[in-house]
Structures are given as structure tokens and as C-alpha cells.
Amino acid sequence: MQTSTGAAAAVAAAEQLAQSSSGEGKLKMRWLGGGVYELATLDDSAIVLVDAWIWNNAGWSAFGLTKPPELQSASAFAAHLKGRNPQAVLVALTHDHGDHIGDYFELLPALVNAGVPVMTVGQSDLMRVALVPKFEAANLDPAKIVLNDGAGINFGGTATYERITAWLVPAVHSTAAGYPSAGFIFDIAGTRVYASGDTDLFGEMAMIGQRYRPQFAVFCAGNGPFTMGPDAAAEACKLIGAPHAIPVHYAHNPLVLGPKAGDMFAAAVAATSPQTKVTVTRPGESVVLS
């Protein structure tokens, strides 16, 4: 008996999900301070920037670090990315608070003008309603630079750009414009990453982990008035179930934990989810996730 078209499609989708989530699991990560970071294939052919607060990012001084030249201006950063010869750069916007969107509308035109193959994505109503005037003010056409012809993605939706696929997943947080804050699942050349965005701990993280099976997970861990801290982030790590976790979103303003938050997260994970490997990094460092 032949399988129905709908059933065949479901089987094919399940097989693709399993195949994609069992990739080799090698990416580079570079923390840019605060909740902002870069994920890239080892050959730089596919690069994802999670949020865009780069040259104005204040997450370096608490570590006693000086921001390197390529991160000090839009033009320098665009030249830096251009020189790496990527096939695709995706700027993924979790939400519209200043420590995430702060350099976004300077970054995108700089990348376009430098000839970098760049697209962006975020929650659909944020992309196609709230930010449209700002795209236009930056001389950007949302239909040409936002994935899905300007629509972005909503929860349950997906978007693909070359070897990068993104799914929007919930986050428990606020936004300036009132549209939902979000996290992402990225499949970058066959490797899955969960990007929590700014969030508190919530039970549906277990479903996110079961549904997408990420190999790596990046969690906000700064505590203070805005997001969960190291202990709750460790509980989130257990729910997501990724074998390898990295903490971010700390030491970038006086209301959150300082550099010690990374080690606090590692200690909490060791107690809560001891099978999980933790990498604690410093702004500017590139680490290979494997």
C-alpha cells in the first residue's frame, strides 16, 4: 500500500530533522560582549550574528579588555567580515532592547555597502511592522534584506539562507515595541545551536530541547533585573539537554553579575547537569565548539 502524500512528507521531515541534528558538531563561537556573539563554520562560509550591539558594546571593560580594531566601528567590522569571504551572513535579532539592537541599523547598511552577502531575521511582526520605518530610514528594503521576503519568522516558523536554517522559539522577556521577544534554533551546516536570547527559566524549554535536539546551547546568565542568573540558567541547560553549553549576557552593565558569572554557571551546571560540557569564554575570544 502506498504512503499518503501527507504521511510521506511527515516522514521526510522527521528524517531531515534527525539527519541534520546528528551533524559533526563543529562551529566557531566568538563572544562579542553582553548577549551578542557570532557563530560560524570553521571555514567561515556561513556566519550567524546573534544580535547587533558591537562597537557600542560595553561588555569588555569589566574584563579589563580593550576591544580589537575590527569591532570598533561599522566600517571596520564590515571589512573584517568581507575579508573572511563568507557565502552567507545572517544577523538574527532576538528583540529590540538597546543592548541587542543598538548597532543593528548601522551594521546592516555597512555590510550591504561592503558587498557582504547579508540577510537578517527576527520575529515577524517586529520585522514587518515595528521596524519598517527604521529599515527605510537606513535605506534598506525589508523585502530584500529580511528573510521570507520581509516577513521574518514567527513561532513555529522557519527561514533558510544558504546553509543556515533558523527557527524562532519562545523567550520569557519584554520588548520596547511590544512584540514578542524570542530565542532561536540555528542549523548551521548541519550543526544545531539553541540561542536563548534574554529570558527567564520556563518549562517549555524541555519541549524545545526534545523537538530540535541542539548540540550546543548559549544561555543568558547575568541575573539582576533583566534575565535569569547562573543557577536558573543551569536548570535551563538541563531542560534543553544540549551536550555543550556556553554562558553570555553578563558583565556588560552594573546591574548584572560581573565576570564571575561564567564560572558560577559552570559550577551550577556541574551540580545540576553534570553530563553537560561548559565553555566559559571572554569577549573577543574565538573558541571551537565540538
Order of helices and strands: HEEEHEHHEHHHEEEEHEHEHEE
The CATH architecture assignment of the domain at 25-198 and 213-219 turns out to be: 4-Layer Sandwich
Low-confidence blocks of residues:
1-23
Largest sheet report: 7 strands, mixed
User: What is the terminal separation in angstroms?
Assistant: 43 Å
Give the CATH H-level superfamily of the domain at 25-198 and 213-219: Ribonuclease Z/Hydroxyacylglutathione hydrolase-like
CA gyration radius, whole angstroms: 18 Å
| Number of H- or I-type helical stretches | 10
Shape: globular
User: Which bin fits the share of residues in helices?
Assistant: 25-40%
Give the strand order, joined by hyphens, for the main sheet.
6-7-8-9-10-11-12
Query: What structural category arises from helix and sheet content?
Result: alpha/beta
Detailed description of the structure:
With 290 residues, the chain is α/β, with parallel strands linked by helices. The protein has a domain at 25-198 and 213-219: Ribonuclease Z/Hydroxyacylglutathione hydrolase-like (Metallo-beta-lactamase, Chain A, 4-Layer Sandwich), CATH 3.60.15. The chain is built from ten helices and 13 strands. The strands form two sheets. A seven-stranded mixed β-sheet has the order 6-7-8-9-10-11-12. Strand 8 and strand 9 (191-195) form a beta hairpin. Helix 2 (74-83) packs across helix 4 (104-113) and helix 8 (205-212) runs parallel beside helix 9. The longest helix is centred in the first third of the chain and has 16 residues, at 5-20. The chain is globular, with a radius of gyration of 18 Å.
